[in-house]
Sequence to fold (740 residues):
Amino acid sequence: MTEFIPPATRFFALPTPFAMKRGGALHGARLAYETWGELNAHADNAILILTGLSPSAHAAANADDPSDGWWQAMLGPGKPIDTNRWFVICANALGSCKGSTGPASRNPDSEEMYRLAFPELSIEDGASAAHALVTGLGIKHLACLIGNSMGGMAALAYIHRFPNHARNHINISGSAQALPFSIAIRSLQREAIRLDPNWNEGNYGEANYPENGMRMARKLGVITYRSAMEWHGRFGRVRLDSEAREDDPFGMEFQVESYLEGHARRFVRKFDPNCYLYLSRSMDWFDLGEYAAGNVLRALSALHIRRALVIGAETDILFPLEQQEQIAEGLVSGGSNAEFVALPSPQGHDAFLVDIARFGPVVADFLADL
Amino acid sequence: MTEFIPPATRFFALPTPFAMKRGGALHGARLAYETWGELNAHADNAILILTGLSPSAHAAANADDPSDGWWQAMLGPGKPIDTNRWFVICANALGSCKGSTGPASRNPDSEEMYRLAFPELSIEDGASAAHALVTGLGIKHLACLIGNSMGGMAALAYIHRFPNHARNHINISGSAQALPFSIAIRSLQREAIRLDPNWNEGNYGEANYPENGMRMARKLGVITYRSAMEWHGRFGRVRLDSEAREDDPFGMEFQVESYLEGHARRFVRKFDPNCYLYLSRSMDWFDLGEYAAGNVLRALSALHIRRALVIGAETDILFPLEQQEQIAEGLVSGGSNAEFVALPSPQGHDAFLVDIARFGPVVADFLADL
Fold:
């Protein structure tokens, strides 16, 4: 699976054993990360970025890897997350296949890939791994913890588990608990993978990769990552050129179908299906409310953070705006200085990746004030 | 496929040959229907109901079949569509498998099932078949044409093709053209069916029915038929009893997953997969705008209807409210007396089937005024 790992990736050895929330432990596990900028003498200019389900640690170009990263426009010298000022760390999620230990990694007990022998993965495990990385780099306090999407969940778990460690927080298109619409979508994505005969209870290889299942999962993902409004303006009812159509009575005919197919083709064989299943399920399980007898607002109000910025896109159907509003409301009720910003981006859940014109200045202004 | 056909179903022989919009013709085709109430001496109290993708003609109990129909609470003596006053016809869609001729019917040319030899099906073909049924029953003018969802598309095609035939119109959760979000969803549903090895290019049988593909298609359908808001209130994060869970690390755990599975199990083997593919694709193709050089508002304004009621649910993501607003706006701009009603039903696209408390009075008031 080394082909998934970007060249600038560094590896941090997690404490051994690394206990997992739902039981079991990892031995000899590692977290993949990249950095930008310089840590100052007081080690008080560090920002940690926690990602969504699929990104690697390569958020932007750096000396070891000049290729564009997944948040290229947001991160760099003079950019909203200004690496002239900040020392920025981006971690690949625990359980992923892009350098961090996950189901596609070698199980030291068997010397074979973990596959489904990987212990049950929780969002909280990812938070603890990220905290181990940060402290291992000699950083006692994060100047700011940034989490996007699944990373927004992990950031809340991080703040819960390690009070007073992060001084400030930006939560983007995140949520404090998974709700049934998102659970239903993710459950269907997992079912598509599990139904692929090649999945074979997790025992696939390069020659029999569950490509159809992953393609369906990715297409359903992309449908929920964007918005009907964006697609109406972008694709309308435009059809493919007749030569681009398949010779198939039910084949692709509209541009929107070709767009989904292109996304799927760029994803399959670039992500490990078992890792996808584990990370997807960890989001369904996440509920910060479990730390306050089911009361998610009370759990949020118990978090200690100096200042927080909570941003969402009005068109997000996967992590709907009400969930970002709830995060801000909970933080405020606990005495934090939290600001909620709803952006009218048409790109839905993915807006933070593409609508830098809107997200960039909000993030830049917040960081400039710290 | 006779097991799909409700007992009260009657059959109307369509003209032979029955020419199809995109080419080809049906021979010896029929349309399944049921009726309620009595046609009066002037034959001017007839209402036709055109359905969504999957319902049969059995909209409500009648003398020949006392079982509840799919719109039981809406239709009957003293109900919003009052069968003491109106003679109501409900047609099973052309291309369906519940009595009307479709891909699961016998092809008179080969004496075998049509399967993919069925000609390409358009929404307009369904409209023409329904019009043939109505006139065949001795009705020159419909007092009101009612269309729901796909039937709302078919109703607009009907009014376009047969001007001045329907005097009044109720369009519920319909649209004048398919937009890319809905096309994407339906394309993915069709792909799930086509990926099932049992589909076998349409050549399945009872013993090798593409159950997995149909289950995925149905689950994705149900996700888009309802709304996140409804599910949040209805399921929240409630888990299944441990004994109801499968012994599978990625099996169902949340109530919402069990709800989807229940819907899927009630659907598979009750609907023919090839019929599903044909009807689904016909919706993607539908665009009333093609009758006005791509301008859907102008196409709507050219429709002749005396009074119209256009209803939508605010939470509908599959046929979003803007599409019902567009229908009303287009009809009004053409001089029709059209009213647009947006209902705050939480049940999304399916609301007209279940939120009778809101939809019933609106329909009843409109019909009472005719």
The mean pLDDT of chain A is 96. Residues 167 and 331 of chain A are 13 Å apart (CA to CA).
